[in-house]
Amino acid sequence: MEEIVNCYPVGIQTFSKIREGGYLYVDKTGYIADFRRKKMSYVFLSRPRRFGKSLFASTLQAYFEGRKELFDGLAIADYEKDWVKYPVLHIDMSGAKHLNAERLEDYLGLQLSEYEELYGRDERERYPNDRLDGIVKRAFKMTGRKVVVIIDEYDAPLLDVVHEEENLRSLRFVMQNFYSPLKKLDPYLEFTFITGITKFSQLSIFSELNNLENISRFDQYSAICGISLTELTTMMKPDVEALGKALGITYEQCLEELRLYYDGYHFSEHSEDVFNPFSLIRALSGQKIESYWFGSGTPSYLIKSLQKYHVNVTDIEAHAVSVDDFDVSPEQMTSALPILYQSGYLTIKKYSPITKSYKLGYPNMEVKIGMLRSLAPNYLSPVSIDNNGLVAEFVEMLYEDNINEAMIRLKAYLSSISNRLSNKNERDFQTVFYLIFNLMGAFVKVEEDSAIGRADAVLHLPTTIYVFELKYDGSAEEAINQITDKGYLIPYSAEGKRLVKVGVNYDSSQRTIGDWIVREM
Predict the structure, then answer these.
(1) Ramachandran region of residue 70, left (φ > 0), alpha (ψ -120 to 50) or beta?
(2) How far apart are the C-alpha atoms of 407 and 502, rounded to whole Å?
(3) Among residues 189, 186, 187, 227, which one has the least CA distance to residue 209?
Protein backbone atom coordinates (compact mmCIF):
# COMPACT_ATOMS: atom_id res chain seq x y z
CA MET A 1 0.00 0.00 0.00
CA GLU A 2 1.39 3.42 -0.97
CA GLU A 3 2.24 5.64 1.97
CA ILE A 4 -0.03 8.66 2.33
CA VAL A 5 1.93 11.90 2.23
CA ASN A 6 0.25 15.30 2.58
CA CYS A 7 1.45 18.70 1.50
CA TYR A 8 1.51 20.75 4.69
CA PRO A 9 0.54 24.45 4.63
CA VAL A 10 3.60 25.73 6.49
CA GLY A 11 3.24 29.49 6.81
CA ILE A 12 0.12 29.61 4.60
CA GLN A 13 -2.89 31.42 6.08
CA THR A 14 -4.95 31.88 2.91
CA PHE A 15 -7.82 29.42 2.54
CA SER A 16 -7.98 29.60 -1.26
CA LYS A 17 -4.24 28.90 -1.59
CA ILE A 18 -4.53 25.85 0.68
CA ARG A 19 -7.51 24.43 -1.20
CA GLU A 20 -6.28 25.20 -4.69
CA GLY A 21 -2.78 23.96 -3.86
CA GLY A 22 -4.00 20.65 -2.46
CA TYR A 23 -2.53 21.24 0.98
CA LEU A 24 -3.77 19.47 4.10
CA TYR A 25 -6.85 21.30 5.42
CA VAL A 26 -8.57 20.44 8.70
CA ASP A 27 -12.22 21.24 8.06
CA LYS A 28 -13.48 24.09 10.28
CA THR A 29 -16.35 25.12 7.98
CA GLY A 30 -18.93 23.46 10.21
CA TYR A 31 -18.48 26.41 12.56
CA ILE A 32 -19.47 28.78 9.75
CA ALA A 33 -22.63 26.75 9.19
CA ASP A 34 -23.29 27.06 12.92
CA PHE A 35 -22.94 30.88 12.74
CA ARG A 36 -25.44 30.99 9.88
CA ARG A 37 -27.98 28.64 11.46
CA LYS A 38 -27.98 30.77 14.60
CA LYS A 39 -28.14 33.98 12.53
CA MET A 40 -25.17 35.40 14.40
CA SER A 41 -24.18 38.90 13.23
CA TYR A 42 -21.30 40.22 15.37
CA VAL A 43 -18.70 37.67 16.52
CA PHE A 44 -15.44 38.15 18.43
CA LEU A 45 -12.83 35.40 18.81
CA SER A 46 -9.71 35.58 20.99
CA ARG A 47 -6.92 33.04 20.50
CA PRO A 48 -3.11 33.06 20.98
CA ARG A 49 -0.75 34.13 18.20
CA ARG A 50 -0.16 31.70 15.32
CA PHE A 51 -3.19 29.65 16.28
CA GLY A 52 -5.17 29.70 13.03
CA LYS A 53 -7.25 32.85 13.50
CA SER A 54 -6.13 34.33 10.19
CA LEU A 55 -6.85 31.11 8.31
CA PHE A 56 -10.37 31.00 9.76
CA ALA A 57 -10.88 34.67 8.82
CA SER A 58 -9.72 33.84 5.28
CA THR A 59 -12.13 30.89 5.18
CA LEU A 60 -14.99 33.18 6.16
CA GLN A 61 -13.99 35.60 3.42
CA ALA A 62 -14.05 32.87 0.76
CA TYR A 63 -17.43 31.64 2.00
CA PHE A 64 -19.08 35.06 1.91
CA GLU A 65 -17.57 35.73 -1.50
CA GLY A 66 -19.57 32.72 -2.69
CA ARG A 67 -16.55 30.71 -3.83
CA LYS A 68 -18.43 27.44 -3.82
CA GLU A 69 -15.72 25.50 -5.67
CA LEU A 70 -13.29 25.88 -2.76
CA PHE A 71 -15.66 24.12 -0.35
CA ASP A 72 -16.36 20.87 -2.22
CA GLY A 73 -16.38 18.00 0.24
CA LEU A 74 -16.34 20.24 3.32
CA ALA A 75 -18.98 20.48 6.06
CA ILE A 76 -20.40 23.80 4.84
CA ALA A 77 -21.29 22.24 1.48
CA ASP A 78 -23.99 20.16 3.17
CA TYR A 79 -25.52 23.30 4.68
CA GLU A 80 -25.17 26.02 2.06
CA LYS A 81 -27.33 25.76 -1.08
CA ASP A 82 -27.48 29.36 -2.33
CA TRP A 83 -23.83 30.55 -2.18
CA VAL A 84 -24.72 34.22 -2.28
CA LYS A 85 -21.81 36.56 -3.12
CA TYR A 86 -21.54 39.38 -0.58
CA PRO A 87 -19.17 42.34 -0.68
CA VAL A 88 -16.43 41.55 1.87
CA LEU A 89 -14.07 43.98 3.61
CA HIS A 90 -11.18 42.00 5.10
CA ILE A 91 -8.95 44.30 7.16
CA ASP A 92 -5.72 42.74 8.43
CA MET A 93 -4.22 44.65 11.36
CA SER A 94 -1.23 42.32 11.86
CA GLY A 95 1.00 44.68 9.88
CA ALA A 96 0.22 47.64 12.14
CA LYS A 97 2.70 46.87 14.92
CA HIS A 98 5.22 49.40 16.25
CA LEU A 99 3.39 52.39 14.74
CA ASN A 100 2.59 55.78 16.26
CA ALA A 101 -0.88 57.30 15.90
CA GLU A 102 -0.12 59.13 12.65
CA ARG A 103 1.38 56.10 10.94
CA LEU A 104 -1.49 53.93 12.21
CA GLU A 105 -3.97 56.23 10.46
CA ASP A 106 -1.88 55.93 7.28
CA TYR A 107 -1.95 52.15 7.60
CA LEU A 108 -5.73 52.11 7.98
CA GLY A 109 -5.98 54.37 4.94
CA LEU A 110 -3.97 51.93 2.84
CA GLN A 111 -6.16 49.05 3.98
CA LEU A 112 -9.26 50.97 2.91
CA SER A 113 -7.89 52.24 -0.40
CA GLU A 114 -8.17 48.88 -2.15
CA TYR A 115 -11.90 48.81 -1.36
CA GLU A 116 -12.30 52.41 -2.53
CA GLU A 117 -10.96 51.27 -5.89
CA LEU A 118 -13.93 48.90 -6.04
CA TYR A 119 -16.65 51.02 -4.47
CA GLY A 120 -15.43 54.60 -4.92
CA ARG A 121 -14.61 57.38 -2.49
CA ASP A 122 -16.19 60.65 -1.47
CA GLU A 123 -13.45 63.26 -1.09
CA ARG A 124 -15.23 64.65 1.95
CA GLU A 125 -14.32 61.41 3.79
CA ARG A 126 -10.99 62.46 5.32
CA TYR A 127 -10.55 60.09 8.26
CA PRO A 128 -10.48 56.26 8.33
CA ASN A 129 -13.80 55.99 10.19
CA ASP A 130 -15.58 58.21 7.65
CA ARG A 131 -14.01 56.25 4.79
CA LEU A 132 -15.08 52.91 6.31
CA ASP A 133 -18.62 54.23 6.70
CA GLY A 134 -18.69 55.42 3.08
CA ILE A 135 -17.27 52.19 1.65
CA VAL A 136 -19.87 50.03 3.39
CA LYS A 137 -22.79 52.19 2.27
CA ARG A 138 -21.57 52.41 -1.34
CA ALA A 139 -20.86 48.66 -1.48
CA PHE A 140 -24.38 47.98 -0.28
CA LYS A 141 -25.84 50.37 -2.83
CA MET A 142 -23.74 49.07 -5.75
CA THR A 143 -24.25 45.33 -5.11
CA GLY A 144 -27.67 45.25 -3.48
CA ARG A 145 -26.15 42.99 -0.84
CA LYS A 146 -25.30 43.65 2.78
CA VAL A 147 -21.60 43.87 3.57
CA VAL A 148 -19.36 41.45 5.51
CA VAL A 149 -16.63 43.04 7.65
CA ILE A 150 -13.72 40.88 8.85
CA ILE A 151 -11.10 42.49 11.10
CA ASP A 152 -8.16 40.18 11.82
CA GLU A 153 -5.75 40.79 14.74
CA TYR A 154 -7.61 43.96 15.73
CA ASP A 155 -5.36 44.50 18.76
CA ALA A 156 -1.99 44.19 16.99
CA PRO A 157 -1.28 47.96 17.13
CA LEU A 158 -1.99 48.05 20.86
CA LEU A 159 -0.20 45.04 22.32
CA ASP A 160 3.35 46.36 22.29
CA VAL A 161 2.29 49.59 24.03
CA VAL A 162 -0.06 48.00 26.55
CA HIS A 163 2.27 49.19 29.37
CA GLU A 164 2.87 52.65 27.89
CA GLU A 165 -0.09 54.68 29.07
CA GLU A 166 0.38 57.69 26.80
CA ASN A 167 1.03 55.71 23.60
CA LEU A 168 -1.73 53.27 24.42
CA ARG A 169 -4.20 56.13 24.87
CA SER A 170 -3.39 57.75 21.52
CA LEU A 171 -3.43 54.49 19.56
CA ARG A 172 -6.60 53.33 21.29
CA PHE A 173 -8.27 56.60 20.31
CA VAL A 174 -7.41 56.00 16.63
CA MET A 175 -8.73 52.43 16.77
CA GLN A 176 -11.88 53.41 18.67
CA ASN A 177 -12.68 56.04 16.04
CA PHE A 178 -12.05 53.57 13.24
CA TYR A 179 -14.36 50.90 14.64
CA SER A 180 -17.04 53.37 15.79
CA PRO A 181 -19.15 53.26 12.56
CA LEU A 182 -19.80 49.52 12.89
CA LYS A 183 -22.81 49.85 15.19
CA LYS A 184 -24.62 52.52 13.19
CA LEU A 185 -23.87 50.56 10.00
CA ASP A 186 -25.94 47.63 11.27
CA PRO A 187 -28.64 48.00 8.54
CA TYR A 188 -25.91 47.58 5.91
CA LEU A 189 -24.01 44.67 7.48
CA GLU A 190 -24.58 40.96 6.94
CA PHE A 191 -21.88 39.69 9.29
CA THR A 192 -18.97 41.10 11.31
CA PHE A 193 -16.11 38.94 12.55
CA ILE A 194 -13.24 40.26 14.70
CA THR A 195 -10.20 38.34 15.94
CA GLY A 196 -7.47 39.22 18.41
CA ILE A 197 -5.32 37.96 21.23
CA THR A 198 -6.54 40.15 24.09
CA LYS A 199 -9.88 41.48 25.20
CA PHE A 200 -9.66 45.23 24.68
CA SER A 201 -13.08 44.60 23.14
CA GLN A 202 -14.73 44.60 26.53
CA LEU A 203 -13.85 48.23 27.19
CA SER A 204 -13.18 51.29 25.12
CA ILE A 205 -12.29 49.89 21.70
CA PHE A 206 -15.71 48.43 21.02
CA SER A 207 -17.59 50.19 23.78
CA GLU A 208 -20.39 51.18 21.42
CA LEU A 209 -20.58 47.74 19.82
CA ASN A 210 -22.37 46.16 22.76
CA ASN A 211 -23.92 43.45 20.59
CA LEU A 212 -20.52 41.89 19.86
CA GLU A 213 -20.76 38.22 20.87
CA ASN A 214 -17.53 36.91 22.40
CA ILE A 215 -17.37 33.18 21.62
CA SER A 216 -13.79 32.74 22.91
CA ARG A 217 -14.75 30.71 25.97
CA PHE A 218 -17.78 28.82 24.67
CA ASP A 219 -17.38 25.03 24.84
CA GLN A 220 -18.88 24.52 21.38
CA TYR A 221 -16.21 26.73 19.80
CA SER A 222 -13.21 25.47 21.81
CA ALA A 223 -11.68 23.80 18.71
CA ILE A 224 -12.63 26.47 16.16
CA CYS A 225 -8.89 27.18 15.80
CA GLY A 226 -6.08 24.74 16.37
CA ILE A 227 -6.31 20.99 15.83
CA SER A 228 -8.38 18.90 18.23
CA LEU A 229 -7.30 15.49 19.49
CA THR A 230 -10.28 14.02 17.63
CA GLU A 231 -9.18 15.61 14.36
CA LEU A 232 -5.61 14.41 14.84
CA THR A 233 -6.59 10.81 15.57
CA THR A 234 -9.14 10.52 12.74
CA MET A 235 -8.55 12.55 9.59
CA MET A 236 -4.86 13.11 10.41
CA LYS A 237 -4.04 9.62 11.68
CA PRO A 238 -2.02 8.72 8.52
CA ASP A 239 0.11 11.82 9.10
CA VAL A 240 0.91 10.73 12.66
CA GLU A 241 1.71 7.22 11.44
CA ALA A 242 4.08 8.64 8.80
CA LEU A 243 5.83 10.81 11.40
CA GLY A 244 6.16 7.82 13.74
CA LYS A 245 7.69 5.78 10.95
CA ALA A 246 10.19 8.55 10.20
CA LEU A 247 11.13 8.76 13.90
CA GLY A 248 11.34 4.98 14.32
CA ILE A 249 8.55 4.78 16.89
CA THR A 250 5.02 3.37 16.93
CA TYR A 251 1.87 5.36 16.16
CA GLU A 252 0.92 5.29 19.85
CA GLN A 253 4.36 6.52 20.93
CA CYS A 254 4.31 9.27 18.30
CA LEU A 255 0.85 10.42 19.35
CA GLU A 256 1.98 10.56 22.97
CA GLU A 257 5.04 12.64 22.04
CA LEU A 258 2.88 15.05 20.03
CA ARG A 259 0.48 15.36 22.95
CA LEU A 260 3.34 16.00 25.37
CA TYR A 261 4.84 18.76 23.22
CA TYR A 262 1.90 20.46 21.47
CA ASP A 263 -1.41 19.49 23.09
CA GLY A 264 -3.00 20.71 26.28
CA TYR A 265 -4.82 23.90 25.25
CA HIS A 266 -8.26 24.39 26.79
CA PHE A 267 -10.26 27.54 26.16
CA SER A 268 -13.42 26.83 28.17
CA GLU A 269 -14.72 24.88 31.13
CA HIS A 270 -15.33 21.69 29.11
CA SER A 271 -13.03 22.39 26.19
CA GLU A 272 -11.86 19.81 23.71
CA ASP A 273 -8.15 18.98 23.82
CA VAL A 274 -6.54 21.34 21.31
CA PHE A 275 -3.07 21.14 19.75
CA ASN A 276 -1.05 24.17 18.68
CA PRO A 277 -1.47 24.04 14.87
CA PHE A 278 1.68 26.06 14.13
CA SER A 279 3.95 23.57 15.88
CA LEU A 280 2.03 20.45 14.92
CA ILE A 281 2.06 21.22 11.18
CA ARG A 282 5.76 22.03 11.29
CA ALA A 283 6.53 18.81 13.15
CA LEU A 284 4.62 16.77 10.56
CA SER A 285 6.22 18.65 7.68
CA GLY A 286 9.79 18.56 9.00
CA GLN A 287 9.31 15.08 10.55
CA LYS A 288 10.89 16.28 13.76
CA ILE A 289 9.36 17.03 17.15
CA GLU A 290 10.92 20.17 18.59
CA SER A 291 10.06 23.70 19.71
CA TYR A 292 8.47 25.71 16.89
CA TRP A 293 5.84 28.05 18.39
CA PHE A 294 7.96 29.28 21.27
CA GLY A 295 10.99 29.41 19.03
CA SER A 296 9.13 31.78 16.70
CA GLY A 297 9.64 34.58 19.19
CA THR A 298 8.53 35.76 22.61
CA PRO A 299 6.47 38.96 22.24
CA SER A 300 7.98 42.02 23.91
CA TYR A 301 4.66 42.84 25.61
CA LEU A 302 4.84 39.52 27.46
CA ILE A 303 8.35 40.12 28.79
CA LYS A 304 7.34 43.66 29.81
CA SER A 305 4.33 42.25 31.67
CA LEU A 306 6.46 39.78 33.59
CA GLN A 307 8.87 42.55 34.53
CA LYS A 308 6.17 45.05 35.45
CA TYR A 309 4.41 42.65 37.81
CA HIS A 310 7.66 41.14 39.18
CA VAL A 311 6.60 37.63 38.27
CA ASN A 312 8.69 34.89 39.88
CA VAL A 313 9.20 31.90 37.62
CA THR A 314 7.85 29.53 40.29
CA ASP A 315 4.61 31.52 40.56
CA ILE A 316 3.60 31.41 36.89
CA GLU A 317 1.45 28.33 37.29
CA ALA A 318 -1.38 29.56 39.49
CA HIS A 319 -3.47 27.55 41.87
CA ALA A 320 -7.19 28.36 42.00
CA VAL A 321 -8.32 31.55 40.24
CA SER A 322 -11.63 32.99 39.16
CA VAL A 323 -12.35 33.83 35.56
CA ASP A 324 -12.09 37.53 36.47
CA ASP A 325 -8.44 36.93 37.39
CA PHE A 326 -7.33 35.81 33.94
CA ASP A 327 -9.95 36.58 31.30
CA VAL A 328 -10.05 40.36 31.53
CA SER A 329 -9.03 43.32 29.41
CA PRO A 330 -5.37 44.43 29.60
CA GLU A 331 -6.67 47.79 30.83
CA GLN A 332 -8.00 46.03 33.94
CA MET A 333 -4.92 43.91 34.61
CA THR A 334 -3.47 43.87 38.10
CA SER A 335 -1.15 40.93 37.36
CA ALA A 336 0.50 39.24 34.36
CA LEU A 337 -2.03 36.39 34.48
CA PRO A 338 -4.41 37.72 31.78
CA ILE A 339 -1.58 38.28 29.28
CA LEU A 340 -0.09 34.86 30.00
CA TYR A 341 -3.46 33.17 29.48
CA GLN A 342 -4.66 35.13 26.46
CA SER A 343 -1.27 34.82 24.75
CA GLY A 344 -1.28 31.03 25.13
CA TYR A 345 1.50 30.63 27.69
CA LEU A 346 -1.01 29.39 30.26
CA THR A 347 -4.23 27.53 29.66
CA ILE A 348 -7.15 26.11 31.62
CA LYS A 349 -6.10 22.79 33.16
CA LYS A 350 -9.08 22.15 35.40
CA TYR A 351 -12.42 23.72 36.31
CA SER A 352 -14.15 23.30 39.67
CA PRO A 353 -17.94 23.72 39.36
CA ILE A 354 -18.26 23.86 43.17
CA THR A 355 -16.05 26.92 43.65
CA LYS A 356 -16.38 28.13 40.02
CA SER A 357 -12.60 28.40 39.96
CA TYR A 358 -9.98 27.42 37.41
CA LYS A 359 -6.52 25.95 37.66
CA LEU A 360 -4.16 27.37 35.06
CA GLY A 361 -0.93 25.80 33.91
CA TYR A 362 1.48 25.50 31.01
CA PRO A 363 -0.34 23.77 28.16
CA ASN A 364 2.54 21.51 27.15
CA MET A 365 6.25 20.80 27.27
CA GLU A 366 7.10 23.12 24.37
CA VAL A 367 5.67 26.15 26.16
CA LYS A 368 6.95 25.24 29.62
CA ILE A 369 10.54 24.57 28.57
CA GLY A 370 10.50 27.57 26.24
CA MET A 371 9.23 29.88 28.96
CA LEU A 372 11.71 28.59 31.53
CA ARG A 373 14.62 28.91 29.10
CA SER A 374 13.69 32.50 28.32
CA LEU A 375 13.41 33.41 32.01
CA ALA A 376 16.36 31.35 33.27
CA PRO A 377 18.99 34.08 32.63
CA ASN A 378 17.19 36.26 35.20
CA TYR A 379 18.02 33.69 37.88
CA LEU A 380 20.93 31.61 36.58
CA SER A 381 23.79 32.48 34.29
CA PRO A 382 22.88 35.36 31.96
CA VAL A 383 24.37 33.33 29.09
CA SER A 384 21.71 30.81 28.06
CA ILE A 385 24.27 28.42 26.56
CA ASP A 386 25.75 27.96 30.05
CA ASN A 387 22.37 26.97 31.47
CA ASN A 388 21.54 24.61 28.62
CA GLY A 389 25.04 23.12 28.80
CA LEU A 390 24.75 22.41 32.51
CA VAL A 391 21.38 20.71 32.11
CA ALA A 392 22.54 18.59 29.16
CA GLU A 393 25.72 17.53 31.00
CA PHE A 394 23.77 16.66 34.15
CA VAL A 395 21.35 14.44 32.22
CA GLU A 396 24.15 12.76 30.26
CA MET A 397 25.96 11.89 33.50
CA LEU A 398 22.75 10.39 34.89
CA TYR A 399 22.38 8.27 31.76
CA GLU A 400 25.94 7.08 32.37
CA ASP A 401 24.96 6.23 35.96
CA ASN A 402 27.39 8.80 37.31
CA ILE A 403 25.26 10.71 39.80
CA ASN A 404 28.21 11.85 41.93
CA GLU A 405 29.93 13.48 38.94
CA ALA A 406 26.62 15.13 38.05
CA MET A 407 26.33 16.59 41.54
CA ILE A 408 29.96 17.83 41.46
CA ARG A 409 29.19 19.58 38.16
CA LEU A 410 26.02 21.13 39.64
CA LYS A 411 27.91 22.30 42.73
CA ALA A 412 30.55 24.00 40.59
CA TYR A 413 27.90 25.65 38.45
CA LEU A 414 26.02 27.05 41.44
CA SER A 415 29.28 28.43 42.81
CA SER A 416 29.80 30.35 39.59
CA ILE A 417 26.43 32.14 39.62
CA SER A 418 26.84 35.86 40.21
CA ASN A 419 25.70 37.28 43.54
CA ARG A 420 23.46 39.78 41.83
CA LEU A 421 21.38 37.12 40.12
CA SER A 422 20.09 34.72 42.71
CA ASN A 423 20.95 32.35 45.49
CA LYS A 424 20.52 34.84 48.33
CA ASN A 425 17.82 33.19 50.42
CA GLU A 426 15.77 30.03 50.61
CA ARG A 427 13.24 31.20 48.03
CA ASP A 428 16.02 31.99 45.56
CA PHE A 429 17.53 28.57 46.21
CA GLN A 430 14.17 26.92 45.52
CA THR A 431 13.77 28.96 42.33
CA VAL A 432 17.21 27.93 41.05
CA PHE A 433 16.53 24.24 41.62
CA TYR A 434 13.02 24.56 40.17
CA LEU A 435 14.52 25.96 36.97
CA ILE A 436 17.37 23.48 36.67
CA PHE A 437 15.24 20.40 37.25
CA ASN A 438 12.39 21.58 35.05
CA LEU A 439 14.78 22.43 32.22
CA MET A 440 15.79 18.79 32.36
CA GLY A 441 12.26 18.10 31.17
CA ALA A 442 13.52 18.78 27.64
CA PHE A 443 15.45 15.50 27.91
CA VAL A 444 13.75 13.30 30.50
CA LYS A 445 10.41 13.09 32.25
CA VAL A 446 10.47 15.26 35.36
CA GLU A 447 7.98 15.59 38.19
CA GLU A 448 8.39 18.60 40.46
CA ASP A 449 6.14 19.18 43.44
CA SER A 450 3.44 17.35 41.53
CA ALA A 451 1.45 15.91 44.45
CA ILE A 452 1.39 15.36 48.17
CA GLY A 453 3.77 12.58 49.08
CA ARG A 454 6.27 13.35 46.34
CA ALA A 455 9.85 14.46 46.66
CA ASP A 456 11.06 17.83 45.42
CA ALA A 457 12.03 16.36 42.04
CA VAL A 458 11.65 12.97 40.38
CA LEU A 459 13.64 12.16 37.23
CA HIS A 460 12.55 9.22 35.08
CA LEU A 461 15.30 7.59 33.02
CA PRO A 462 14.91 4.41 30.94
CA THR A 463 16.24 2.10 33.67
CA THR A 464 16.42 4.32 36.76
CA ILE A 465 14.23 6.70 38.74
CA TYR A 466 16.05 9.36 40.75
CA VAL A 467 14.16 10.90 43.67
CA PHE A 468 15.63 14.18 44.95
CA GLU A 469 14.91 15.91 48.24
CA LEU A 470 16.49 19.33 48.81
CA LYS A 471 17.29 21.06 52.09
CA TYR A 472 18.40 24.61 52.82
CA ASP A 473 21.00 24.87 55.60
CA GLY A 474 20.00 21.45 56.87
CA SER A 475 21.72 18.17 56.11
CA ALA A 476 21.79 15.63 53.30
CA GLU A 477 21.04 12.90 55.84
CA GLU A 478 17.88 14.74 56.87
CA ALA A 479 16.82 14.90 53.22
CA ILE A 480 17.47 11.16 52.68
CA ASN A 481 15.48 10.26 55.79
CA GLN A 482 12.53 12.37 54.58
CA ILE A 483 12.40 10.41 51.31
CA THR A 484 12.23 7.17 53.32
CA ASP A 485 9.94 8.31 56.14
CA LYS A 486 7.35 9.91 53.84
CA GLY A 487 7.33 7.08 51.33
CA TYR A 488 8.26 9.17 48.33
CA LEU A 489 9.48 6.06 46.49
CA ILE A 490 6.31 4.02 46.98
CA PRO A 491 4.49 5.34 43.83
CA TYR A 492 7.39 4.08 41.67
CA SER A 493 8.10 0.70 43.27
CA ALA A 494 6.01 -1.22 40.73
CA GLU A 495 7.78 0.16 37.63
CA GLY A 496 10.61 -2.37 37.74
CA LYS A 497 13.35 0.27 37.60
CA ARG A 498 16.26 1.04 39.89
CA LEU A 499 15.17 3.49 42.57
CA VAL A 500 17.82 5.95 43.72
CA LYS A 501 17.41 8.42 46.58
CA VAL A 502 19.41 11.64 46.44
CA GLY A 503 19.47 13.91 49.50
CA VAL A 504 20.92 17.35 48.81
CA ASN A 505 21.76 20.16 51.23
CA TYR A 506 22.37 23.75 50.12
CA ASP A 507 24.84 25.68 52.27
CA SER A 508 24.00 29.39 52.22
CA SER A 509 27.41 30.34 53.63
CA GLN A 510 29.13 28.68 50.65
CA ARG A 511 26.35 29.76 48.27
CA THR A 512 26.28 26.32 46.68
CA ILE A 513 25.58 22.68 47.48
CA GLY A 514 27.23 21.71 50.75
CA ASP A 515 26.84 17.93 50.66
CA TRP A 516 24.71 15.18 49.20
CA ILE A 517 24.01 11.50 49.83
CA VAL A 518 23.07 8.91 47.20
CA ARG A 519 21.42 5.64 48.24
CA GLU A 520 19.87 2.93 46.11
CA MET A 521 16.80 1.08 47.32
Answers:
(1) alpha
(2) 10
(3) 186
Distances (CA, A) of 211 to 53, 88, 183, 287: 21, 20, 8, 45
What does pTM read for this prediction?
A: 0.92
- Express each pLDDT in 29-79 by its tens digit: 999 999 999 999 999 999 999 999 999 999 999 999 999 999 999 999 999
The Cα 309–Cα 295 span in angstroms is 24
Residue 192 near residue 136 (C-beta atoms within 8 A): no
Alpha-carbon span 342 to 245, nearest angstrom = 35
| Alpha carbon distance 515, 503 (integer Å) | 8
Q: What are phi and psi of 466, to 5 degrees?
A: -100, 130
**Separation CA 476–CA 453 (nearest Å):** 19
Residue 260 CA: distances (Å) to CA of 272, 273, 280, 347:
16, 12, 11, 14
Rounded Cα–Cα distance for residues 140 and 138 (Å): 5
- Residues 253-306 pLDDT 10s: 999 999 999 999 999 999 999 999 999 999 999 999 999 998 777 777 888 888
Residues β-bridged to residue 275: 227
